[in-house]
Specification:
The strands form three sheets. The protein has a six-stranded mixed β-sheet, with helices on one face. Strands 3-2-1-13 form a four-stranded mixed β-sheet. Strands 4-5-6 form a three-stranded antiparallel β-sheet. It has 312 residues and is α/β, with parallel strands linked by helices. Strand 5 and strand 6 form a beta hairpin. The protein is 30% helix and 23% strand.
């Protein structure tokens, strides 16, 4: 019989530069999730610091990354729960270089406090690029966990189906995506057409990714303060999406406020979805006809420019 896992998606409101209080609040959510039988808790991207890279103290806070990674490891062991602690921005010094670099990393910590794997954000959102270093051509690797084969992606990675397919081709059944996504990430033009354009994007694409890959997508986004008198710019919408069912997570899937949903993830649904859609079967076939690492084709002039020149 296929297992059923309980997963907590924590829609934390990360207060800018308040690393210790943000951690303390995250820890309380995780303890509550563990007390309700959750086997995995997932936090948002930038949950310790918020995204304030121009603050002169931001880089110094990122230098504390190991302290908080160790705290999450101890928390996982103490409460017998696996944790993906959102992302932690890490400051590193390259040998021979004066300037340090910042990388944005998601970890999978098991219920014994062991780090089973990690992922450095590859597809940086445009405003992140002056501040963060991408993992560029590193492969997307599956992590073997107590919940089966898992893939980690981060925020804007969700826009690239190639990232999902690289993980699915290796057998990933669950894709976990810590995110920091706001409604104001949209352009002024887009907002003039629809102030909730980014919510439409997220709701559409997260369900699509689950269907087209016969996988579960665990999406933990930042939320805003509850009962605020000001408009909440945080998109929230934290959820687990599944084939056949769509979005799960009653407390957060339609909300932008801070909170937590605990979702039962029935792995049989993924088995039945694959029987129906046979996506993985097609990907594994010898005559599979799509290549996803196609940048060489574009460099050789065989993309749209090549079509215009009549070469295709």
């Amino acid at each position: 019989m296929a297992p059923i896992y309980k997963i907590a998606v924590i829609q934390l409101h990360p207060k800018p530069m308040q690393i210790e209080s943000n951690y303390a609040k995250a820890a309380e959510f995780i303890k509550t999730a563990a007390s309700q039988g959750a086997q995995l808790a997932v936090l948002p991207e930038y949950h310790l610091t918020n995204w304030v890279p121009d603050d002169p103290k931001f880089s110094d806070l990122c230098g504390q990354w190991e302290i908080y990674l160790d705290k999450y490891r101890a928390l996982a062991k103490a409460h017998n729960i696996c944790i993906v602690p959102g992302t932690i921005v890490e400051r590193h010094q390259d040998a021979g270089k004066e300037e340090s670099k910042l990388i944005n990393v998601a970890y999978f910590i098991d219920n014994k406090g062991e780090i089973l794997g990690s992922y450095q954000k590859k597809n940086l959102w445009h405003p992140e690029r002056p501040h963060l270093t991408s993992s560029t051509h590193d492969t997307h690797d599956v992590i073997q966990t107590p919940l089966g084969p898992v893939g980690l992606l981060i925020c804007w990675d969700v826009a690239f189906p190639e990232a999902f397919r690289e993980l699915i081709a290796q057998g990933a059944k669950i894709i976990i995506i810590p995110t920091f996504w706001t409604l104001t990430d949209c352009s002024p033009y887009g907002l003039s057409l629809n102030p909730l354009a980014e919510a439409v994007f997220l709701k559409s694409i997260l369900t699509s990714r689950a269907y087209e890959n016969t996988c579960a997508v665990v999406f933990a986004n930042a939320g805003g303060p509850c009962n605020s008198s000001k408009p909440n710019p945080y998109a929230g919408l934290s959820r687990v999406t599944m084939p056949f069912l769509g979005a799960l997570g009653a407390e957060t899937k339609d909300s932008g406020e801070e909170g937590m949903s605990i979702v039962e993830l029935d792995m049989r649904i993924l088995e039945e979805a694959e029987k129906q859609y046979k996506v993985r079967e097609d990907l594994a076939s010898e005559d599979w006809h799509y290549l996803y690492r196609h940048s060489a084709t574009l460099r050789d002039g065989k993309g749209m420019e090549g079509r215009e020149r009549g070469k295709l």
